[in-house]
Amino acid sequence: MKKLIARLADTPQDYEKLGLIPDVIQQKEDGLHTNGKFGEYEWWYFDAKLEGGYSLVIIFYSQPVTAATFGFAPCVSLSLTGGGYELMEEVSASIKNSSFSKEGCNVTIGKNTIQGDLKNYTIHFENEKVQCDVTLNGLAESYRHKTGRIVFGEKKYFAWLPAVPEGSVKADITIDGKKLSLTGSGYHDHNWGNTGMFWLMHHWYWGRAKIGDYQVISSYITAKEKYGYEHFPIFVIYQNGVKLGCEIDAITYRQTDAEFDPITQKHYHKTLIYDYNDGTHRFRVTYKAKDIIETFVVDQGYGSARAKASKALIWFVKKMKLAPSYIRMVGDVTLERFEGDTVVESLTENGIWEQMYFGLDQDV
Protein backbone atom coordinates (compact mmCIF):
# COMPACT_ATOMS: atom_id res chain seq x y z
CA MET A 1 0.00 0.00 0.00
CA LYS A 2 1.36 3.41 -0.98
CA LYS A 3 1.89 5.55 2.08
CA LEU A 4 0.45 9.07 1.85
CA ILE A 5 1.54 12.03 3.93
CA ALA A 6 -0.41 13.30 6.92
CA ARG A 7 0.93 16.51 8.46
CA LEU A 8 0.07 19.40 10.71
CA ALA A 9 -0.58 22.46 8.52
CA ASP A 10 1.96 24.90 9.92
CA THR A 11 3.87 26.47 7.03
CA PRO A 12 3.66 30.17 6.05
CA GLN A 13 1.90 29.03 2.87
CA ASP A 14 -0.73 27.21 4.97
CA TYR A 15 -1.47 30.34 7.00
CA GLU A 16 -1.69 32.47 3.88
CA LYS A 17 -3.96 30.03 2.05
CA LEU A 18 -6.36 29.82 4.99
CA GLY A 19 -6.31 33.54 5.77
CA LEU A 20 -5.06 32.92 9.30
CA ILE A 21 -2.66 34.84 11.54
CA PRO A 22 -0.22 32.89 13.77
CA ASP A 23 -1.36 32.96 17.41
CA VAL A 24 -4.27 35.32 16.62
CA ILE A 25 -7.80 33.86 16.65
CA GLN A 26 -10.51 35.70 14.70
CA GLN A 27 -14.24 35.45 15.40
CA LYS A 28 -14.91 34.06 11.91
CA GLU A 29 -12.90 30.98 12.83
CA ASP A 30 -15.78 29.90 15.10
CA GLY A 31 -18.26 30.40 12.27
CA LEU A 32 -19.44 28.04 9.54
CA HIS A 33 -16.71 26.58 7.29
CA THR A 34 -18.57 23.92 5.29
CA ASN A 35 -21.16 24.08 2.51
CA GLY A 36 -22.96 20.75 2.81
CA LYS A 37 -20.84 18.96 0.20
CA PHE A 38 -20.65 15.19 0.39
CA GLY A 39 -18.20 14.13 3.09
CA GLU A 40 -18.21 17.46 4.93
CA TYR A 41 -19.12 17.72 8.60
CA GLU A 42 -19.08 20.38 11.30
CA TRP A 43 -20.03 20.65 14.94
CA TRP A 44 -19.88 23.09 17.87
CA TYR A 45 -19.17 21.28 21.15
CA PHE A 46 -19.70 22.36 24.77
CA ASP A 47 -19.13 20.49 28.01
CA ALA A 48 -19.24 21.43 31.66
CA LYS A 49 -18.26 19.91 34.98
CA LEU A 50 -20.89 21.21 37.39
CA GLU A 51 -21.34 21.26 41.15
CA GLY A 52 -22.87 18.19 42.73
CA GLY A 53 -21.06 15.84 40.34
CA TYR A 54 -23.09 16.74 37.24
CA SER A 55 -21.58 16.53 33.74
CA LEU A 56 -23.29 18.32 30.84
CA VAL A 57 -22.47 18.00 27.13
CA ILE A 58 -24.31 19.86 24.32
CA ILE A 59 -23.32 19.55 20.65
CA PHE A 60 -24.70 21.40 17.60
CA TYR A 61 -24.23 19.55 14.30
CA SER A 62 -24.58 20.76 10.73
CA GLN A 63 -25.40 17.09 10.09
CA PRO A 64 -25.09 13.94 12.24
CA VAL A 65 -21.73 12.20 12.35
CA THR A 66 -23.49 9.13 10.90
CA ALA A 67 -24.78 11.03 7.86
CA ALA A 68 -23.62 10.01 4.37
CA THR A 69 -25.61 12.42 2.24
CA PHE A 70 -25.31 15.82 0.58
CA GLY A 71 -26.53 18.96 2.31
CA PHE A 72 -27.13 19.90 5.92
CA ALA A 73 -29.28 17.86 8.31
CA PRO A 74 -29.08 19.99 11.47
CA CYS A 75 -29.40 18.39 14.90
CA VAL A 76 -28.48 19.02 18.54
CA SER A 77 -27.64 16.53 21.29
CA LEU A 78 -27.64 16.93 25.07
CA SER A 79 -26.11 14.52 27.59
CA LEU A 80 -26.56 15.03 31.33
CA THR A 81 -25.25 12.71 34.03
CA GLY A 82 -25.22 13.06 37.80
CA GLY A 83 -27.82 13.43 40.51
CA GLY A 84 -29.39 10.16 39.43
CA TYR A 85 -29.77 11.31 35.82
CA GLU A 86 -28.36 9.62 32.72
CA LEU A 87 -30.07 11.63 30.00
CA MET A 88 -29.35 11.61 26.27
CA GLU A 89 -31.70 13.87 24.35
CA GLU A 90 -31.76 15.06 20.74
CA VAL A 91 -33.51 17.55 18.52
CA SER A 92 -33.46 17.70 14.72
CA ALA A 93 -34.72 20.55 12.53
CA SER A 94 -35.12 21.29 8.86
CA ILE A 95 -32.61 23.55 7.15
CA LYS A 96 -35.48 26.06 6.72
CA ASN A 97 -35.71 26.33 10.51
CA SER A 98 -31.93 26.47 10.99
CA SER A 99 -29.20 29.00 10.33
CA PHE A 100 -25.41 29.16 10.49
CA SER A 101 -23.24 32.27 10.33
CA LYS A 102 -19.84 32.45 8.64
CA GLU A 103 -18.87 35.54 10.64
CA GLY A 104 -18.78 33.84 14.02
CA CYS A 105 -20.53 31.36 16.28
CA ASN A 106 -24.24 32.03 15.70
CA VAL A 107 -26.10 28.76 15.16
CA THR A 108 -29.85 28.17 15.28
CA ILE A 109 -31.36 24.69 14.94
CA GLY A 110 -35.09 24.89 15.50
CA LYS A 111 -35.54 26.43 18.96
CA ASN A 112 -31.95 25.61 19.92
CA THR A 113 -29.13 28.15 19.74
CA ILE A 114 -25.46 28.68 20.46
CA GLN A 115 -24.01 32.19 20.14
CA GLY A 116 -20.69 33.66 21.19
CA ASP A 117 -17.70 35.85 20.41
CA LEU A 118 -14.70 33.68 21.52
CA LYS A 119 -15.19 34.98 25.07
CA ASN A 120 -18.84 34.85 26.15
CA TYR A 121 -21.43 32.32 24.94
CA THR A 122 -25.09 31.54 25.47
CA ILE A 123 -26.56 28.11 24.72
CA HIS A 124 -30.20 27.04 24.65
CA PHE A 125 -31.49 23.47 24.31
CA GLU A 126 -35.16 22.56 24.27
CA ASN A 127 -37.33 19.52 23.68
CA GLU A 128 -40.41 18.03 25.35
CA LYS A 129 -38.42 16.63 28.28
CA VAL A 130 -35.56 19.06 28.89
CA GLN A 131 -35.01 22.80 28.70
CA CYS A 132 -31.50 24.06 29.31
CA ASP A 133 -30.01 27.58 29.30
CA VAL A 134 -26.26 27.97 29.71
CA THR A 135 -23.92 30.94 29.93
CA LEU A 136 -20.21 30.33 29.38
CA ASN A 137 -17.75 33.12 30.18
CA GLY A 138 -14.21 32.50 29.00
CA LEU A 139 -11.34 32.62 31.47
CA ALA A 140 -8.58 31.68 29.01
CA GLU A 141 -7.87 32.95 25.50
CA SER A 142 -8.88 30.89 22.48
CA TYR A 143 -6.26 28.42 21.27
CA ARG A 144 -5.43 27.09 17.83
CA HIS A 145 -2.77 24.42 17.33
CA LYS A 146 -0.78 26.12 14.51
CA THR A 147 -3.48 26.55 11.78
CA GLY A 148 -5.71 24.07 13.59
CA ARG A 149 -5.68 21.69 10.60
CA ILE A 150 -4.24 18.28 10.00
CA VAL A 151 -3.88 17.69 6.25
CA PHE A 152 -4.15 14.18 4.83
CA GLY A 153 -2.66 13.82 1.37
CA GLU A 154 -3.10 17.06 -0.56
CA LYS A 155 -6.66 18.28 0.02
CA LYS A 156 -8.33 16.29 2.80
CA TYR A 157 -8.30 17.80 6.26
CA PHE A 158 -9.57 17.79 9.83
CA ALA A 159 -9.82 21.10 11.75
CA TRP A 160 -10.11 21.86 15.46
CA LEU A 161 -10.50 25.16 17.34
CA PRO A 162 -10.71 25.25 21.17
CA ALA A 163 -12.56 28.57 21.24
CA VAL A 164 -12.98 28.61 25.05
CA PRO A 165 -10.31 26.42 26.71
CA GLU A 166 -11.78 27.25 30.11
CA GLY A 167 -14.75 29.24 31.30
CA SER A 168 -17.15 29.74 34.18
CA VAL A 169 -20.58 28.20 33.62
CA LYS A 170 -24.09 28.83 34.90
CA ALA A 171 -26.66 26.27 33.79
CA ASP A 172 -30.42 26.44 34.41
CA ILE A 173 -31.92 23.04 33.59
CA THR A 174 -35.55 21.93 33.77
CA ILE A 175 -36.25 18.19 33.48
CA ASP A 176 -39.89 17.12 33.41
CA GLY A 177 -40.74 20.25 35.37
CA LYS A 178 -37.97 19.88 37.98
CA LYS A 179 -35.57 22.82 37.99
CA LEU A 180 -31.82 22.75 38.61
CA SER A 181 -29.54 25.77 38.83
CA LEU A 182 -25.86 24.78 38.73
CA THR A 183 -22.47 26.43 38.35
CA GLY A 184 -19.10 25.05 37.36
CA SER A 185 -16.31 24.98 34.79
CA GLY A 186 -16.90 24.69 31.03
CA TYR A 187 -15.27 24.36 27.64
CA HIS A 188 -16.23 25.00 24.01
CA ASP A 189 -14.56 23.85 20.83
CA HIS A 190 -15.40 23.58 17.13
CA ASN A 191 -14.56 20.84 14.60
CA TRP A 192 -15.02 20.55 10.87
CA GLY A 193 -13.60 18.75 7.85
CA ASN A 194 -14.17 17.83 4.22
CA THR A 195 -13.77 14.04 4.31
CA GLY A 196 -15.33 11.45 6.59
CA MET A 197 -13.03 10.97 9.56
CA PHE A 198 -13.16 7.19 9.18
CA TRP A 199 -11.25 7.60 5.87
CA LEU A 200 -8.46 9.55 7.55
CA MET A 201 -8.04 8.45 11.17
CA HIS A 202 -7.68 5.15 12.93
CA HIS A 203 -8.58 6.55 16.34
CA TRP A 204 -8.06 9.41 18.76
CA TYR A 205 -8.13 10.26 22.43
CA TRP A 206 -9.22 13.74 23.48
CA GLY A 207 -9.62 15.20 26.95
CA ARG A 208 -9.78 18.34 29.00
CA ALA A 209 -9.63 18.97 32.74
CA LYS A 210 -9.72 21.80 35.26
CA ILE A 211 -7.17 20.91 37.96
CA GLY A 212 -6.75 23.50 40.69
CA ASP A 213 -5.50 26.69 39.00
CA TYR A 214 -4.59 24.75 35.85
CA GLN A 215 -6.56 23.95 32.70
CA VAL A 216 -5.35 21.18 30.38
CA ILE A 217 -6.50 20.27 26.86
CA SER A 218 -4.97 17.20 25.26
CA SER A 219 -5.40 15.03 22.21
CA TYR A 220 -3.60 12.13 20.57
CA ILE A 221 -4.67 11.40 17.00
CA THR A 222 -3.53 8.35 15.02
CA ALA A 223 -3.93 8.41 11.23
CA LYS A 224 -5.04 5.40 9.19
CA GLU A 225 -2.60 2.85 7.80
CA LYS A 226 -2.39 4.49 4.35
CA TYR A 227 -1.10 7.63 6.14
CA GLY A 228 1.53 5.54 7.94
CA TYR A 229 -0.30 5.51 11.29
CA GLU A 230 1.15 9.01 11.78
CA HIS A 231 0.69 10.26 15.35
CA PHE A 232 -0.34 13.80 16.33
CA PRO A 233 0.07 14.62 20.03
CA ILE A 234 -1.51 17.92 21.06
CA PHE A 235 -1.24 19.41 24.54
CA VAL A 236 -1.81 22.89 25.96
CA ILE A 237 -1.75 23.96 29.60
CA TYR A 238 -2.96 27.17 31.24
CA GLN A 239 -2.64 28.53 34.76
CA ASN A 240 -5.25 31.10 35.82
CA GLY A 241 -6.04 31.68 32.15
CA VAL A 242 -2.40 32.24 31.12
CA LYS A 243 -0.96 29.78 28.62
CA LEU A 244 2.18 28.09 29.97
CA GLY A 245 3.07 25.73 27.15
CA CYS A 246 1.97 24.02 23.94
CA GLU A 247 5.16 23.06 22.06
CA ILE A 248 4.73 19.94 19.90
CA ASP A 249 8.27 18.65 20.42
CA ALA A 250 7.90 18.88 24.20
CA ILE A 251 5.21 16.16 24.44
CA THR A 252 5.76 12.51 25.34
CA TYR A 253 2.64 10.34 25.35
CA ARG A 254 1.97 6.92 26.91
CA GLN A 255 -1.15 4.76 27.33
CA THR A 256 -1.59 1.79 29.66
CA ASP A 257 -4.23 -0.43 31.34
CA ALA A 258 -6.00 -1.68 28.21
CA GLU A 259 -9.62 -2.66 28.84
CA PHE A 260 -12.16 -4.28 26.51
CA ASP A 261 -15.54 -2.57 26.16
CA PRO A 262 -18.27 -5.12 25.31
CA ILE A 263 -20.58 -2.53 23.71
CA THR A 264 -18.16 -1.04 21.20
CA GLN A 265 -16.15 -4.28 20.94
CA LYS A 266 -12.98 -2.20 21.22
CA HIS A 267 -10.11 -1.94 23.61
CA TYR A 268 -9.55 1.40 25.27
CA HIS A 269 -6.83 2.53 27.66
CA LYS A 270 -7.91 3.43 31.15
CA THR A 271 -4.69 5.38 31.76
CA LEU A 272 -3.36 8.13 29.46
CA ILE A 273 -0.16 10.01 30.32
CA TYR A 274 1.05 13.27 28.76
CA ASP A 275 4.55 14.34 29.83
CA TYR A 276 5.29 17.94 28.84
CA ASN A 277 8.83 19.36 29.09
CA ASP A 278 9.83 22.42 27.04
CA GLY A 279 12.92 23.25 29.10
CA THR A 280 11.09 25.95 31.03
CA HIS A 281 8.03 24.06 32.22
CA ARG A 282 7.59 20.37 32.96
CA PHE A 283 4.23 18.81 33.76
CA ARG A 284 2.90 15.28 33.76
CA VAL A 285 -0.85 14.86 33.32
CA THR A 286 -2.39 11.43 33.94
CA TYR A 287 -5.97 10.48 33.05
CA LYS A 288 -7.39 7.46 34.94
CA ALA A 289 -10.84 6.32 33.83
CA LYS A 290 -13.46 5.32 36.40
CA ASP A 291 -16.70 5.14 34.41
CA ILE A 292 -17.99 5.18 30.84
CA ILE A 293 -20.86 7.67 30.56
CA GLU A 294 -21.68 7.34 26.85
CA THR A 295 -21.06 4.93 23.98
CA PHE A 296 -21.86 5.09 20.29
CA VAL A 297 -21.64 2.27 17.74
CA VAL A 298 -22.66 3.11 14.19
CA ASP A 299 -23.56 -0.42 13.11
CA GLN A 300 -25.43 -1.49 16.27
CA GLY A 301 -27.67 1.46 17.03
CA TYR A 302 -26.55 1.96 20.61
CA GLY A 303 -27.32 5.22 22.34
CA SER A 304 -29.70 7.93 21.22
CA ALA A 305 -31.44 8.58 17.90
CA ARG A 306 -28.24 10.06 16.50
CA ALA A 307 -26.57 6.64 16.78
CA LYS A 308 -29.30 4.88 14.83
CA ALA A 309 -27.63 5.03 11.46
CA SER A 310 -29.43 4.25 8.22
CA LYS A 311 -29.40 0.72 6.85
CA ALA A 312 -27.42 2.01 3.87
CA LEU A 313 -24.70 3.44 6.11
CA ILE A 314 -24.56 0.30 8.24
CA TRP A 315 -24.16 -1.77 5.06
CA PHE A 316 -21.48 0.62 3.82
CA VAL A 317 -19.30 0.55 6.94
CA LYS A 318 -19.46 -3.23 7.09
CA LYS A 319 -18.59 -3.60 3.41
CA MET A 320 -15.62 -1.25 3.81
CA LYS A 321 -14.54 -3.07 7.00
CA LEU A 322 -15.00 0.05 9.06
CA ALA A 323 -16.18 0.01 12.66
CA PRO A 324 -16.84 3.55 13.96
CA SER A 325 -17.35 3.71 17.72
CA TYR A 326 -17.15 6.23 20.54
CA ILE A 327 -16.57 6.07 24.29
CA ARG A 328 -16.89 9.05 26.64
CA MET A 329 -15.25 8.54 30.02
CA VAL A 330 -14.99 10.28 33.38
CA GLY A 331 -12.41 9.76 36.08
CA ASP A 332 -9.47 11.30 37.90
CA VAL A 333 -6.97 13.60 36.21
CA THR A 334 -3.72 14.15 38.10
CA LEU A 335 -1.34 17.02 37.31
CA GLU A 336 2.24 16.92 38.57
CA ARG A 337 4.55 19.93 38.25
CA PHE A 338 8.27 19.27 38.23
CA GLU A 339 11.36 21.24 39.08
CA GLY A 340 14.11 19.20 37.50
CA ASP A 341 13.19 15.60 38.28
CA THR A 342 11.37 16.45 41.50
CA VAL A 343 7.59 16.70 41.79
CA VAL A 344 6.89 19.96 43.61
CA GLU A 345 3.12 20.09 43.12
CA SER A 346 0.50 17.37 42.65
CA LEU A 347 -3.24 17.94 42.17
CA THR A 348 -6.11 15.62 41.27
CA GLU A 349 -9.61 16.50 40.01
CA ASN A 350 -12.43 14.88 38.07
CA GLY A 351 -12.26 15.13 34.28
CA ILE A 352 -14.02 14.08 31.08
CA TRP A 353 -12.41 12.59 27.97
CA GLU A 354 -13.17 10.39 24.99
CA GLN A 355 -11.95 7.77 22.58
CA MET A 356 -13.16 7.90 18.97
CA TYR A 357 -12.21 4.70 17.17
CA PHE A 358 -12.86 4.35 13.43
CA GLY A 359 -10.81 1.29 12.55
CA LEU A 360 -10.85 -2.33 13.56
CA ASP A 361 -9.71 -3.19 17.06
CA GLN A 362 -5.92 -3.25 17.01
CA ASP A 363 -3.07 -1.59 18.86
CA VAL A 364 -1.35 1.09 16.81
Structural class: mainly beta
The total tally of domains equals 2
Global shape? globular
Number of helices: 3
Radius of gyration over all CA atoms, rounded: 19 Å
Which CATH class of the largest domain? Mainly Beta
Determine the CATH superfamily of the largest domain. AttH-like domain
Arithmetic mean of pLDDT: 90
CATH architecture of the largest domain: Beta Barrel
CATH fold group of the largest domain: AttH-like fold
Cα(first) to Cα(last) distance is 17 Å
Total strands: the figure is 22
Beta-sheet strand percentage?
Answer: over 45%
Task: Explain this structure.
By secondary structure, the protein is mainly beta. It folds into 2 domains: 7-195, Beta Barrel (AttH-like fold), CATH 2.40.370.10; 197-364, AttH-like fold. It contains 3 helices and 22 strands.
Question: Which features would summarize this protein structure in a list?
Answer:
mainly beta; AttH-like fold; 2 domains; 5% helix
